[in-house]
Amino acid sequence: MKKICSVILALVLLISLLPLRSVSAAYAIPENMQWWSEARFGMFIHFGSYAQLGYGEWAMAGKYSKEDWQIKVSSIFNPTNFDAKTIVDYAKKAGMKYLVITAKHHEGFSMWDTQVASFKDYTGTKTYSLQGFTAFGSTGRDVLMELKNACDEAGLKFGLYYSIIDWNHSSQEYYGTTNFTKMFSMEAREAYIKDMKKQLKELVTLYDPAIMWFDGDWLEYDGAPTLVKWWAKKDGQALYKYMKTLSPNIIVNERVSRNFGIGDYECPEQKIPAAPLKRPWETNMTMNGSWGYTTWGEKNYKKLKTEIQDFVTVVSREGNFLLNIGPKGDGTMDTGAKDTLVGIGKWMDIYSNSIYGSNRNPFGKDPVWGRYTQKDKKVYAHVFTWPTTGKLEATAIAKGKIKRIYLLNDSEKTLKYSVSKDIIKITVPKNAPDENDSVVVIEYSSIPK
Ligand code: H79
Q1: Which of 67, 176, 261, 324 has the largest count of CB atoms under 10 Å?
Q2: CB neighbours (10 Å) of residue 279?
Q3: Is 13's pLDDT higher than 90?
Q4: Which protein residues are within 6 Å of ligand 1, measured from CB?
Q5: Exposure on the CB side of residue 352, measured as CA atoms within 13 A
């Protein structure tokens, strides 16, 4: 009896010491976010009157009065070469499945024909919007609707960005880079929040966006509102609820009031988390360090390799990638943006099966040579550094039965391999099939639950 007991004890000990190699369980994805979670890749567009200065979307901050900015910048905004179809074509060819464009950024210029009375110029007579304040818009052009229509036609989902802070609105003013705006009175605060909600209702009614992407909420404040800390957690919770009453299936990011767990997903900005987060997430990133168009950004585009590997890294941690373009003042994209989109598209043409609908790295830790994604019974080995030895060492899913191993760019041909313990040694060609990320598919016939 004693002997049996100690054998059992030894067995239990042994099992508990074995490395955990089962497929990691992901968080549940709600029904309305299913498409978003499978999409994995979207286009962010920062476009507003600031684009013509080539100084980014923060160009107004601390440099122009409301009046100056309105007259010298917004009133002459004339993006005559803006062509929604071209932009959506580039997005689609890149493999992007959704698009989010700035309806209103911090400087407060409405890119749609808002009828909410308090969004006015400094004289209080003209509506401060593309249609109410520019010759371009007064002819009836509506760049948001043009994009929405192009998206519908191409089968992309359409989303809008909306800034909670508003450097132009009469309720508040720019107040430095820690608080961003300051309210003039508590009554002004109440009235602004009401009007902001009216604008959001307009946006939902006009464009029926699939995503509402908030920003300008940085206070992370869980207290009673003051003139400086005027946007608090409670306001974010109320805003989130309000959006769902306007449109039950709309997807709302966490920036209704960030870092309180509100909203449908987290949005790390310009960074990739080291591991999957505890709920759905999306990294938003620039191609060149700038959101709104900048002259210096034009010469500062990241390498295609970096873009593709960042994208794959995000997907390997079960995130989405929202990659930004900042069209120029005339509405056209610069060469760097176009080249990047075309380059990613060429890679996606061959490798997108390893991206759409795929899950996190089932092993947790990244392999030394790259990343893993997984979908159904396939583990995709994304090889950033191709082996010089002709052998790739990959991790096997414990007790999984391997069916076949092949290159995603040449799926007819089977690769030779051997398995020892949990290491699969795969014989691969001498040269990397893709200089940015080659994908080896390890297909299983069964994977234990
Ligand atoms: O819309 C884009 C940015 O304008 C907005 N979010 C993305 C999606 C944003 N990014 N960071 N911030 C807002 C917070 C402000 C950061 C700042 Fe600065 C750093 C303010 C002052 C220093 C960046 C550099 C903006 C102005 C100078």
Answers
A1: 324
A2: 14
A3: no
A4: 57-58, 177, 215, 269, 284, 291
A5: 16
